[in-house]
Design a protein that fits this description.
This protein is mainly alpha-helical. It has one domain (36-84, 110-251): Leucine-rich Repeat Variant (Alpha Horseshoe), CATH 1.25.10. Helices cover 65% and strands 3% of the residues. It contains 14 helices and four strands. Helix 4 packs parallel to helix 8 (138-151), helix 10 packs antiparallel against helix 11 (190-203) and helix 11 (190-203) runs antiparallel to helix 12 (210-216).
Length: 252
């Protein structure tokens, strides 16, 4: 190969490397999922990012709760985002960056991260110590139910448990919400089942059909699920009798 050809090959290789680096930086910095309706000048995804780890930030919760007409449709869409191999790759790539670069580039957010934040927000937006408990309007509940029910099949445990908990807010359409909670009671993860029991306890206040489902959790294989069921029944003024759990086991 002549020198000019070698030089051209090196230049071409350098060009490819520059394009690759530019592409990686674009993936790290560009996040179309963060676009959409704004609350206080920031997209809903910005607010849910603060909640993804389960941190009860009162300012975030109050902000979302005061802007439900914008927040709820956006949260439902966010909860329904499919997985993205490109976003998963981007996060893995970010974790491999030298510490100096990681400090300068925000941690990328995967679709699972987005769903976690949305599920948690839908769970706490109607029940929190800062604003008190408030039932969703019928239209809001009807919008949330399909997304929450689908989220019970999510690969992410945190999404499933938050979705199960959020179903307890839907007393205005309690019958289908109870059916969805019944699905969550069969989840392989005990934490999800415990949150389903918690949700059934709230739904039982408006629909007694939740009580037999709640009592069935007394016989759960994990003691913390049964304990949660006991707590919910006691809150309803219906402390379980000794034969409640045994009759549930026999029915199974």
């Amino acid at each position: 190969m002549r020198p000019t050809s070698k030089r051209a090959a090196r230049i071409a290789g350098l060009g490819v490397a520059v394009l690759a680096v530019a592409g990686v930086l674009w993936l790290l910095l560009h996040d179309p999922d963060s676009q959409g309706p704004l609350i206080k000048g920031k997209p809903v995804a910005y607010w849910t990012r603060q909640l993804r780890t389960g941190h009860m930030d009162p300012d975030v919760i109050i902000t979302l709760a005061n802007e439900k007409s914008v927040a709820i449709p956006a949260l439902v869409r966010q909860l329904s985002l499919p997985d993205s191999a490109a976003k998963d790759f981007t996060k893995r790539l970010w974790r491999r960056l030298p510490p100096m670069l990681r400090d300068r580039v925000s941690e990328p957010t995967t679709r699972a991260d987005r769903r976690e934040g949305a599920a948690f927000a839908l769970a706490v937006i109607y029940q929190n110590e800062f604003l008190g408990t408030a039932a969703p309007a019928l239209a809001e509940a009807q919008m949330m139910l399909p997304a929450l029910t689908r989220a019970l099949q999510d690969r992410d445990v945190y999404v499933r448990l938050c979705a199960a908990n959020a179903l307890g807010n839907l007393g205005v359409i309690s019958a289908p919400a109870i059916e969805s909670c019944d699905v969550a009671l069969k989840d392989t993860n005990w934490w999800v089942r415990a949150n389903a029991a918690m949700a059934l306890g709230r739904l039982a206040k408006s629909n007694a059909q939740a009580i037999p489902r709640l009592k069935s959790a007394l016989a759960d294989s994990h003691p913390k699920v049964g304990k949660q069921a006991v707590t919910e029944l006691e809150r309803l003024g219906m402390p379980p009798q000794q034969d409640d759990a045994s009759s549930t086991i026999e029915a199974k």
